[in-house]
Structure formats: C-alpha cells, structure tokens
Queue: 3 jobs
Job 1
Amino acid sequence: MTTRKSDIDFDNTEYAFEYKNNFELKRAQFIFNLINFNWLVKAGTSIANKMMQSGLSFPVVVGMRPTIYAVFCGGDELEDTVEISNNFGKYGVNTVLDYGVEGKESEQDFKKTENEILKAIEFAKKNKNISIVCSKFTGLLKMEILEKLNENKELTISEESEYKTAIERIDRIAAAAAKNEISLFVDAEESWIQKPLDDLTFSLMEKYNKKQPIIYNTIQLYNKSRLSFFKNAVEMAKEKGFIYGAKIVRGAYMEKEAKRAKQKGYENPIQKSKKDTDADYNEAIKFGIAHINDVAVCIATHNEESCLIATQLLQEKGIKKNHPHIHFSQLMGMSDNLTFNLAKNGFVASKYMPYGPVKDVIPYLIRRAQENTSVSGQMGRELALISKEIKRRKLL
Ligand SMILES: Cc1cc2nc3c(=O)[nH]c(=O)nc-3n(C[C@H](O)[C@H](O)[C@H](O)COP(=O)(O)OP(=O)(O)OC[C@H]3O[C@@H](n4cnc5c(N)ncnc54)[C@H](O)[C@@H]3O)c2cc1C
C-alpha cells in the first residue's frame, strides 16, 4: 500500500499542540516571535555571552528560565523532566534524555557527566516514557585528545592515561545502557573529532548491539563524505554480526566548519548546497529502510519532506510503523506538528529533551535561537502553526 501525502496531515495543529495548555501555547508564540528577529537574537546572544563571561550569570538565568529555557528544556534536574515526559507519553511520544551541559574540560566535570548519564539511564529504566539517553562524548573526554586522535597524532603519556580513563568511563555508560536496555545516542559534533567517535561507537556497537540496537552513532549528512561512510559502516557491522545504530541528522555546525576549513586552508567538508545535503539525507533514509534488518535508524529532523519520504517508504515496503529499527525524533520546543502527528498515526516518535542548570545549557539555547533565525522559512512555519492553533482555540 502506498501512503498518499494526505495520510499524515502535518498541518493538523490540534494534534500537534494537544499536549500544550493555553498558557504554554501563548508563551511559545511569544518566544518564536522574538527569535524571529535576527538582530534581536544577534544582540541578545552577544550580550548574554559577555555577561556570562564576566560572571554576571544571574540576570541571564532569570531572564531565560521562564522564557526560552521553558520552551526548549525539560528542567534543572532529572526529576523535573517527569511531568513533561509523562505528558508527552499521553500522546504516544517518547522522550530522549539529553544532559545538556557542554564545554567542560576537567576530570572532575567528566566524572560528573558520567554520573549524570548513569543516573539518566537508571531513571529511564523506571520511566516507561523514556527509552533513550543521549550523550556528547566531549562531555566525557578532552576535545584536544579527540583532535589529536583524529589526525593520527601520538598522545603524550599523560594523555594516553586520560584517554584510557575516558574509554573505561564510556564503557561503563554503554554497559549500563545495555544492561537496562536503554539506547544510548552519541551526538555528532565537529568533523575534526569525528573519526575517534566513529571508531569508539563502532567498537561499542560490536560489544553491545548484537541482539538489539543499544549504541547509536550520529551521521551528519551535510558532510560530503558521510553517506558513503554510513553505507560502509552498515556493511561492516553486518559482516561482524551486529546491528548498526544510526541517528541521521543534517548537521548543526555548518558555519564553524566553513570557517575552520578556510582558516586552515583545506576543502570545506560541507556539501555545496542545501539541495545536496537534502539529497544525501533522503538517500540515507532510503538506504536505512532498505537495510532495516541490519541497521536501526533514528530520523532526527525537522524537515517535513524527509519525514514524508520515510513514512511513504515504510508503507510501500510493508514495514510495520512501529518497527523497532526505525523512529523519528525532533527537539523539544520544535516541530511538534511532526512529532505528535507521526505518533498519532502510529509511528515511533520522540522528543529530544535537554535538561540541566540554566547557566550550563545556555550554549545549547543560543544554538537553538541562532539556528532558528538562520534557517530560512523554519521559524516562519513554527510560528504560523502556533498562531493557527491559537486561532483555532479562539485565544486571540
Ligand atoms: C533529534 C535531533 C537530534 C540532533 N542531533 C544532532 C547531533 O548530534 N549533531 C548535529 O550536528 N546536529 C544534530 N541535530 C541538528 C541537525 O543537525 C540540524 O541542524 C537541524 O535538525 C536542522 O536540520 P533539519 O534536518 O531539521 O532541517 P532543514 O531545515 O531542512 O535543514 C537545515 C539544515 O540543512 C543544512 N544546510 C542548510 N543550508 C545549507 C547549505 N547552503 N549547504 C549545505 N547544507 C545546508 C544544515 O545542516 C542545516 O542545519 C539534531 C536534530 C534533531 C532534530
């Protein structure tokens, strides 16, 4: 059976925002209205950055907590996320827990992040609405070490020892995830640290993905080389007898990648155009679905067309909508029209929910604000849908 485009109505705002009360809906409208102003985001993020750097975090935290933080984050502590994830669960939407603290460099911080992730895994085990925990490996080991490994440079003796500690730390997390049958998503970051992340996730998958997908690497399809990497990795995993786990994204560090490539004089690894990124992204979906027994794919996107391509393909191939190897994910506060309409139609859908103290998740919030102003059309659509629902509820 072929799904017609109209089988899923991503414009259905009643289902999309059913989980939000009137106050939350109007708050979201207010925030998206503000973020829509490019100049305001630029000025706001620059002021917030300066205040944070000079130790004036209090006013930034006070300003962000009831506004942008409330829209995009689950809360300071794990326990604070329960109410929201239970609410998502009522509408068939799962939660991906994301300890949003970034940019730490000390052994003490790495240990803290490890404990937080282990806590999140235990917490997820007890909560039926949470089955995935995600992690940034730069929160667990030094960026500098990853950069050196990426370039095949030799580590110093002390770096060797730090790396060994980090590997043990990461393995403890992966083992806990496997024991509790909670999936662990490893986020992708800059291309200049990706190779060691690929190697690490591959060896973890070899150990823990024999029966079911526990470990997921992230594939950024805005990078010219990643589609073929993905295809090869799936083939290699098949040969070795485990399921490759892949969260597929377009990629969030485009400007940073271009800037570094220019500075260092190498070819920009990013696709030449958005069209090329889209083509590789949709090809990755097709490849994943065609090899569904060998790979588990999380389609992590706010792009409606990519979601439609995936839902159509699943139905054309007679693959059940809730197949354990395929799921859709969007960030909390964004594209509810995709997540909640996908779930309503029987597909597996989740929300990425960052949590952590406000002052520690500010880099994440700034990225959300910047991403939404720089991607043309995206914010307009978000705002239009919220406004449509406000009108439907006669809240004007
Ligand atoms: C659940 C979830 C998890 C995520 N995890 C990660 C992660 O681990 N690592 C990460 O890097 N990102 C991650 N992201 C962010 C993601 O990479 C994208 O930045 C974001 O989702 C926007 O892309 P899109 O597919 O939603 O939609 P679209 O709006 O269709 O695409 C926008 C994206 O297209 C690409 N693009 C835009 N213009 C051009 C151009 N001129 N040339 C080439 N490419 C272009 C960029 O990647 C841009 O972000 C995640 C997103 C989601 C929803």
Note: The domain at 77-359 is CATH 3.20.20.220 (TIM Barrel).
Job 2
Amino acid sequence: MDKRFPIEDQIEMLGAMIRGRVITPHHPDYDSVRMVALAQFDRRPAAIIRVANAADIAAVLNFAQATDLPVAIRSGGHSTGGFGVADGALVIDVRDLNRIDIDVTGQTAWAGAGMTAGEVTHAVEQHGLIVGFGDSASVGIAGLTLGGGIGYLARKHGLTIDSLLAVEIVTATGDILVADEHHHADLFWALRGGGGNFGVVTRFKYRLQPLPSFTGGPLVFPPTPEVIAGFAALADAAPNELTAIAMVLPLPPIPAIPAEAHGQLAFVAMMAYAGDPADAQRALAPFRALATPLADMIQTGPYSSLYMLDPPPEMRAMVAVRSGFTSRFGLDEARALVTAAQSCTAPMSMSQIRVLGGASSTIGNEATAFAHRDSRFMVTFLAMYGGGPEVVAAQERWVAEALSSVVPAGNGTYVNFLGADEAAAGEAAYPSATRERLARIKHRYDPENLFRLNTNIAPAA
Ligand SMILES: Cc1cc2nc3c(=O)[nH]c(=O)nc-3n(C[C@H](O)[C@H](O)[C@H](O)COP(=O)(O)OP(=O)(O)OC[C@H]3O[C@@H](n4cnc5c(N)ncnc54)[C@H](O)[C@@H]3O)c2cc1C
C-alpha cells in the first residue's frame, strides 16, 4: 500500500483488491453494518470489510499490518465485551461466509463462520440432525464456538467445542490452515475456548448427532427459594438427556401467562429433553411437582422452537453481565439469587442458572482451552436497560454484587459472558496452566499480537 495517500484513500483502494465489500463512514450502509447486538457499543470503525473468502481476509490482514490499523473480528455481533467493533479499527466482518455443507450420511457439517446458531440449527434439523449452540438464534456460531458454547445439549452432547472436528483459519501471516486433532493440534486445542486470539476462522466442521425427537419449553413457577433450590437439585441429578437453563425474570406480557403475573418476577425454567417423548415426560414429572406451575409450555417439536425470541434492532438495549461457575447451588444460594433479582432496577433482568455436568463434564479440564468442566452450575446475572452513565454504573454494580452474593469468588468465569470492564483482562476465564499454554500457542501463531481486540492472551515464548 502506498503510504503517500491518505489512509481513507488507501482503504478505498483495498476495496479494489478484494472480492468482498469495503464499507467506510461515507457509505449509506455504514451505520446499520457497524451496529452490534449490545447498544452500548456504538463505535465508529475506520472501515468494515465484508470479506467474501479466505483470500480477502489475508489481504485485509496484510493491509492492517502495513498501515498499523487495529483489527476487530465480527461474526454474529453478540460479544458482551464489545469486541466485534472498535473505533478507528478495520472490522473483518465474516457475515457473508454463510455457506453450509452437510454430509448427512457422515453426520458432519462445514458451516461458514458468518452463520448464526439459528441458521445452522434450521439447516441441520431438516435432516433429523443437531449440533448444540446456546439459547439464542441470533448469536454467531464463531464467537460462541471459540469460547466454548454452553447450551441446551450440554449434558447430552457436551459443549459446542465437544462437537468441533476441525477449523479453517487464516493466521496473522495470511496462511490458510485447517486445524484438527491431527494437524496443528495445539492450535486446535487453543481454538476450543481461547476465543479470537489466533486468526480469523472461515469455517467450522461439526459432528452432528441424530435427534429423532425433542421435547422442551418453559416451565414457569413462583420465584421461591425452595422451588429454585429444588429445581437445581433435580436438574443436577437428571438423566443426561435433560439440560435446563433457568432464570428469575420479570414475566413478559404473553397470552400463556395469566395477566396478573405480567411484569412480576417468576422462575422460568427452560427445559430441553433430547430423546424419546415418553421418557421426557417421566424425566419432567418431578420438576412439574415442585409447585403448581404458573404456565407449562413444554411440548414435543423442533429443537429450534426453544430459541429465545430476539428483540428487533430498534429495541436493542445496553446489557450488563457477570457469570461465575460453582459446584454448590442449595437453598442459601437460591435465597441470595432471589434477593438479588428483587433488587435490580433495570426494566429487564435475568438471574440465571445453567446446569452443567453430564457429557460436558466427562472431558478433562486440560483437554481444551475451556477449563471449567468440573463445575456443576454456571450462574449469570444480566441487566438490560437504557440511559446515561449513572445508569450504566448502577447496572454494572448490580451484576457484580449479585454474582458475588451467590457464587464464591475465584471459581472462574465463562469467557463468553465477561462484562465489558472485565473482558479485556479476562483473568478469571483461564486457570494459570491454561493461560500459559494459550500464551505459548499465541506466540507461535500471532507473535505480534495482531489479534488483540478480544479477551487477550499476550504472546509468551
Ligand atoms: C443474547 C445473548 C445470548 C447468549 N447466549 C449464549 C449461550 O446460550 N451460550 C453461550 O455459550 N454463549 C452465549 N452468549 C455469549 C456468546 O457466545 C458470545 O457473546 C459470543 O462471543 C458471541 O459470538 P458472536 O459471533 O455473535 O459475536 P461477535 O461480537 O461477532 O464476535 C465476538 C468475538 O469472537 C471472536 N470471533 C468472532 N468471529 C470470529 C472469527 N470468524 N474468527 C476468529 N474470531 C472470531 C472475536 O474475538 C470477536 O470479537 C450469548 C450472548 C448474548 C448477547
């Protein structure tokens, strides 16, 4: 690139060198394309490059190194640390890498890194197959998979990374590699939990599992500590076919909920049973007996029907989030969770328990860069709100205090649910041995730390 030209002109020239599109602040699409899921990350990158293939990515990385412009990587745009967009950066936007190739007989799929969880789920469930992502259809498979992936099949089939067979990635040098158990095995280990530190992923190869029948949906209870603690004990002891994500939240005004309960706090347990419908009813019976449900919307149907409804872009909110792992969730923790939920001043909040164990815990902590497999629960607090800096501070304080009232400090945090102010350091996301191994692999694949707008692993020899 000819440095005699202003940087804006150099960026325009980059557009002529690639198959994809370069979107600068003058472009009519700039504002909609730079928007991410969390409203507080209202940032103005130097350009967003909608790459069309791996060669485009290599060209952008080369350009970034020649111009010293920082690089952000964006897929589904749901980063809780706001890493998918940065002021003054070149955003490598992979959303157009959205092709999926399904091998129905071999039960595998190569999915483009720009696809969302919902898109992949819809594509594979047509064939009676599944791979587990998270609870929301609009989350990108890329960010989710690279952090671990904790969703409704965690107990049956493990984390998303436990179904990952291979990754195609463009490294800082512009090399296109395929990493799997046998090729670049260290890199493959690091990509299963180490986030966007090692290159730009173009596609993921997943193992698909047959899912002939699925039963799931919300079971809604009054938010009493006894119900919540009872739920946690039952879900922890349930067959692996059953995974649950449950939360105290203010009930939305939907017809299935009695009108007098709208806006009131309730305990909503999202139940997911991957198996025979009659077995599902047997496994669900003790949960239904915890108390008289306010609503029972569990049904047998497609897995994708369980995804949360995503708000339209104009209703995007600011989000404060904190999570922590724990192996203890009894009556004391349930009481503290309810007290915390009651004290939240945001219009929408979730005080959430994810029940882990099952297949996700049969793999060793050292087997992947996600190293929290011996924790039986993950507790997460989210506040969704709008307003100025004082509101931001109040909600950030609420999530932090709520978490510390339920989960002991030092048990570790999920890298994909780090709050904005803790995300850059991410100390709690990796135990020291994991972080040291990640640093050595980072040194091999990205010694100059080109990929640093993330929960950063500093390269170390
Ligand atoms: C509403 C909501 C619900 C969620 N639910 C769940 C859940 O149920 N389970 C769960 O595990 N997580 C969940 N998450 C967390 C989610 O997994 C992370 O926020 C994840 O980073 C989002 O990925 P993305 O691709 O959408 O985000 P982006 O903001 O596009 O990307 C986040 C980061 O991932 C890395 N990255 C993205 N694409 C690439 C790529 N192609 N190559 C290399 N690095 C890349 C980059 O560092 C990037 O900055 C949820 C988040 C939200 C906001």
Note: The CA atoms of residues 336 and 406 lie 6 Å apart.
Job 3
Amino acid sequence: MTYLFETEEHAQLRDNVRRFSQKHIAPFADAWEEACEFPRELYAAAAEAGLFGVSYPVEDGGSGGDVTHALVASEEMVIHGRSVGTCVGLGSHGIALPPIVRLGTPEQKKRFVEPVLRGEKVSSLAISEPNAGSDVAHLLTRAKRDGDAYVVNGTKTFITSGCRADIVTCAVRTGGEGHGGISLLVIERGTPGFTVGKKLKKTGWWASDTAELCFEDCRVPAANLIGEENQGFYAIMINFANERLFLAGQSVAIAELAYRESVAYAKTRTAFGKTLMGHQVIRHKLADMATKIAAARALVSECATRVARGEQVPGLAAMTKNAATDMVMAVADQAVQIHGGNGYMREVLVERLYRDARLYPIGGGTREIMNEIIAKTEGY
Ligand SMILES: Cc1cc2nc3c(=O)[nH]c(=O)nc-3n(C[C@H](O)[C@H](O)[C@H](O)COP(=O)(O)OP(=O)(O)OC[C@H]3O[C@@H](n4cnc5c(N)ncnc54)[C@H](O)[C@@H]3O)c2cc1C
C-alpha cells in the first residue's frame, strides 16, 4: 500500500530505502534485537545511502523534501528492515534535530545538524524526567546562567539513543515555574558533569537503546541555547506534533508487516484439513485487520498532507496518533492469535511486533494526553 500523496519521487525514495533495509538491516534484525543493540557503523551506512538527509533542508546538509518523504522512508524501513528497534534508534535524529533546524543559528546547524546528517554523530531528544513525563511544563532539570555558560543539574529518563548520543537536545528550566520558564539547550557528550546513568531494559524496541541521563553541575556554553531563552515550550509542542505523526506512520507500518506475516502464515498453516485461510473466521480476522490499517493510513495521509502544506494541526496529529496506535495494538494482537502457539514464540516476528506495538500509545505523548489535546482544540 502507498499513501495518496505519493509521487514518482516518493516511489524512488521507497526503492532506495527498501534496498538499503533489505541489505543492511533485515539479515541481522533478529540478532540485533536479541543483542539489544545495532552496530554504530549503521549510521554512516544509512547517511551514505542518502537516508538521513530526507526532509532536511539542502542548506543544512539534507536532501530536501518534507514530512511526507520522511514518513514514506520510515515506513519502508520498518517493513523491509524487520527490526523496529533498529529503525527507531537509527531515526532518533528525527526528533532531536528539527528544533535546531527550525530555530538554530547557522553556526549551531553547522555544529549540531550537519555531522548527524553525515552519520558521524548520534543525536537524542531529552524532554522526559523521572517526575515529569506527560507534564512537560513542570520539568525540573535546572539550567542556571553563570557568565558565558549554563550550569545544568537534573536527570532525564527514557531517552532514545541516550547511551550513544553525542548531541542531546535537552529541555531545561532557565526561568520560573510552568511552561514559560523552559528552554532548549544542546548538551554534548564529553561535557564534564554529563553522564549516562543506565541503559534501561524494556518490553519492546530492543535494538534501540533507552537511557537515563544525569547532569551534575554540567557547564554548557550559552552558545548552545536553541532559540530564545524561556521560549522552549512552544518549540517542544511543535516538535511533538510532528513526532506524533511519525509514531502514527510507524504504527501503520508495523501493522502492515504483522498483517503480511499473518496472510503468509494463514496460506501455509493447515488445520482440520485445510489452510487457515480456508476458514472463514480467519479470513474475516484478516479482512478486519486490513480495514483498520487502511483507515489509519487514510488519517496519517490527511495529517501529513496538511503538515506538508505548513498547517499547524495539533488536534489532528493527536487524533491520528490515537487512531493508529489503537489500530496497531489490535492488529498485532490478532496477528499473534492467527499464529497460535507460534505467535507466542520469540523467534517469530509477530511476537516481537506485538511487544513493539505497546510503546505507541505511551511514547511521544500518551493516549490520555492526546485526548486532552483533541478536547482542547475541539478536534482540528
Ligand atoms: C521506549 C521509550 C522511548 C522513549 N523515548 C523518549 C525520548 O527519546 N525522549 C523523551 O524525552 N522521552 C522519551 N520517552 C518518554 C515518553 O515520552 C513518556 O514515557 C511519555 O510522555 C509519558 O510520560 P510518563 O512515562 O512520565 O507517564 P506519566 O506522565 O507519569 O503518565 C502515567 C499515566 O497517567 C496518565 N496521565 C498523566 N497525566 C494525565 C492527565 N492530565 N489526564 C489523564 N491521564 C493522565 C498518562 O496518560 C499515563 O497513562 C520514551 C518512553 C519510552 C517508553
């Protein structure tokens, strides 16, 4: 399946990402997921193949395009790479870099964006804290101005690619209480006082690393402030809307993969003298799965088209995320059911997809918070 907005350019991009994913990810997917990491060299290989520049401005080292191109690339990598953990780890720049691209100075873009797009450095976005996840406006990591630096103290948690990140786009409190006191600061690996606390063990997304980051009297040059001081909350919210669209797109991709695996299994597995596909109940399960995927895909398409036109659609992005994440949980569950006992076995792909899917109604803003946004924006 493709999106309604796709052109010949998207088709070529799909071809390129498919070839890369089939060669550089799929053969190693199971091993990397079990090992809970993928090799660092993959960043350089992905950049070399032209995958990292997608949707970034040419003047910042990207290859141009918009959110629709990034969505298509992400879908193709999930489906043909067959390792969601690798895709989300490799793609953490997709949430870390956009605020720098949007608000950074030319010098900041040169230092932070370009090396990541060349695959030389790894980037993370650090918003969540042990005591402030959904409630971003009350985050506690403090950055106190001292001469030409900010002195940062605090802890971030659940940070994707946090263990290996060279560049962390970090939300800090530079001002008073609430959303008006938050800024974005880039904190680089090696800055004294910045340590990676621990690599966290999780339900799914195994090949990606998820870390706790600690800052203790960490002096960060004031030149690393992204945008204006105390104006970070708005930038974070814009970033979240894009992230939600991506998570919805990944949900569609995971569901599509689970569906394809289930169709293939149902055509070969036999029970009571015929294939599973020969049983109407199984055919109808598959029909329901395909219908749910198509509905979510249509919403992702609508949302992506509007975002690509430059519209701010936080309500629609939240709806799209909830519809797609409900869908992927239901589809992955039915994929396991169709696989029977095999679906519960570690070496079978749908078992892993079922675990991977569970993150989607939580990460990038929970299902409940999405409903708050939908209610506040009265829909669109
Ligand atoms: C694998 C993984 C990767 C992640 N990657 C990153 C990353 O790279 N960078 C980053 O910054 N963060 C990351 N996160 C964090 C993620 O964004 C948060 O987990 C998420 O925003 C929820 O925050 P929380 O876990 O603190 O839950 P909480 O905010 O404590 O929420 C707990 C429960 O209470 C509900 N709740 C909270 N407030 C309300 C309310 N007002 N009304 C109704 N219900 C409410 C929530 O919906 C949820 O069900 C990641 C998380 C995971 C699991």
Note: The chain has 13 helices and ten strands.
